[in-house]
Amino acid sequence: MSVKIIKCRRYNVKAMSHLLSEAFDEFGVSPPSDVPTLLKPNIVIAAKPRSAIITHPAVVEATIRAFLENGVRKIIIGEGPGLGADERKFFTAAGYERLRRKYDVTLLNLNKAERVEVSWKYGTLKIPKIVVDAFYVNMPKLKTHGNTVVTLSIKNQKGLLLNADKKRFHLLGLHEPLVELLKVVKPDLVVVDGIVGMEGEGPLNGKRKKANVIVVSTDAVAADITCCRLMRIEPKNVEHLKMAIEQRLCGEPGGGAEPDVKDAEAVKASFKPPHESYGRLLNVYSWRNPYACSMCIDAFSLAIKSAFSRPKYWGTLLRFLYFAAFRRIDVIQGRHAKVPEGAQGILICLGNCTKDVTAENAVHVEGCPPDAESILGALRSAL
Ligand code: SF4
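A: This is the predicted complex of the input protein with iron/sulfur cluster.
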């Protein structure tokens, strides 16, 4: 098991490429020339590189250059963006289209890629064939995450799944299926973009946080432990990482050794974790639940945004903003959702998963996920 923390203050492709080449040489990383090399960044939505939501394309470009200099011929950049993301625009918005033209690499939407079935704890799972065929490089962004505390290489693998399985992972409790997925799909290499990461309400609504590092590892669990240490987040507070450590998935099979993180101690990039129970904007509380997939809360945010351009909902929007500023709105989602303490204003129960929640102030919105019309209609009658 090898882990290296590369200190790097800027997205300078030439400098990063040189440092990555040195790390790959040190670890003896050499993708075979007879199979493609798959780079799997985190592009969860169509966001710009500066947003710190996605893996910066400059780190991917530096990796491409390091591999090309090493004799690698066929490189594919593959990602399956999150539920509800604009699949026509995500590569372009994220700055990856330029890499396709400059280096003649292939951009592959994994949501539409050919699949093969693998056996895993819950039966069979369809994963992209290219992940099995290629030398697979997992390239996450260094970020905190509302449901999983951090999102690093283990969580980045969720982008390999079909949308139906992304939902299913949440219904299964998210943490355990992430660990089970790692048992059947292991990256050959992990390269983490931690030059500018995200802290707080990640993966989409946190703040940019400079950590000035790229983390390289031949082991996903070791990479994630190391990233947690340098974010000053205890790895065992990350449920899926705790499970991976307890099941001795770090290093060689049955190994279980934690990586040496002396360098991580020296980096000192303390990341603010997300609030453990909810995300909050004014007096709107969105409650965490690992059983809830992001589609529900994303549908809610998009519905509110869409109301600004729909005159018939302006009255609803004004009342919503009044409640957000002076009273309270709680939004719950996902199976096993509970009525939160202190939820005395409007309680929005989003999606079919919450249909059994009972409370006097509950407003149910049907759908999986609910559409904007249902959400705004429910708000109009409740506010
Ligand atoms: S109702 Fe919402 S949380 Fe439940 S499965 Fe559907 S989209 Fe996911």
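The chain has 14 helices and 16 strands. The mean pLDDT is 93.
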